[in-house]
């Protein structure tokens, strides 16, 4: 009973820890001999990602990270608007800025203490076959190696072409012509630590954008949009990079900690399941980083895959449950691609109509607050809602109204992630991650699985006589009432629960 996790970036690390937490032995394979701790890379980690890491024992990541509270947006030399982030009342911040290197360091510490995780570094995957199991062929400094596992999770990143080819998968989509220069600097910038600054067409980068993110330790991440063919080495040699930075921060001392040039993509695998192998993170989908939907969606992939693989390996579900991984997470990837593509169309318009629209919106936003809502610099990562999943039973009394406004969450209901709330038995999401959970209202009892009584109303909006069936990733699978006759509410999962009221009427949630 083993799962091979191919790739040890944050998504692979999270997947390995989640599987081990559920009692599944893991072989964690990575082509690198050691970590490269340089560079911020993925920095913005959303609340629900922090929630997963906290459950795994990495709650310090939320404490170490920096949360900016004000988003300032500029057009040319004029500030358009400034937004304050609301307090959602959660114990966790809405997101933190923290370097990917620090995240990997903390997760590596947890992995080192986990006896169920066998780390194989310096193993470059050369092939994957499935002769009734998963066989991973690797090249190492000592020669070829062969790893056999029951299932595998491919977290090999954007450059996991060998893994994708072996599985018959590719990343279809588009790449954007413009490049983005990223610099991490250390500088004393009073008042900037609590602000994210986005500049459209500023005097110091005319015709393009600049984004400035604060990070812990007086560090700042600056992203410039630059033209195709941009030469970083030439800028460094001729002093132009220094001029770029000083045009933003002024005549202050600073230190460049890391710099790199990226081209952004929108690319998706057509399927995220290939037999016994599931694809996750950048190995399955690439999106532009505005809105921080890359690493965050990869962690959501890992959690979705981990509980399903564990259920199948423990004999609690048939292998058909794994198909729901593709259904749910591919739909999430499609939505992320749509959101980030709309952002890139605004940031880097490719047609004359898009250019006219962008200029019109930015010009009107200088004096019209209503136009500010149309300025698209990225919609921050949020959970995907599995309302159309085969594992979700719709409730006509709680219809899903579609994607809520930016920064808002849909009301709880089938297919929606539980709110981050605490009851007398503990944090609801932590309780759910221990296995299927039934939340009952007073006067309703549950047999066959764990249950917790919750008050009527409150954060869930539960009503008298209801029982809420919650999946191990804290998503609501169904809302039941005493007397409901609904079988197989979670297809492929055996013996989930049976809801019973005090006087003996029954509603079968699963057989």
Automatic annotation (TrEMBL):
Ranges for the region named Disordered are: 391-415
Q: What is the protein name given in its UniProt record?
A: Pentachlorophenol monooxygenase
One biological process term from GO is: 3-(3-hydroxy)phenylpropionate catabolic process
UniProt keyword list: Monooxygenase, Oxidoreductase
Cite a single GO MF annotation.
FAD binding
Query: Whose protein is this, by species?
Result: Amycolatopsis rifamycinica
**Pfam family of this protein, just one?**
FAD_binding_3
Question: What range(s) does the FAD-binding domain occupy?
Answer: 2-334
Show the Gene3D superfamilies listed in the entry: 3.30.70.2450, FAD/NAD(P)-binding domain
Q: Has the keyword Disulfide bond been applied to this entry?
A: no
| Record carries keyword DNA-binding | no
Coiled-coil segments, which residues? none
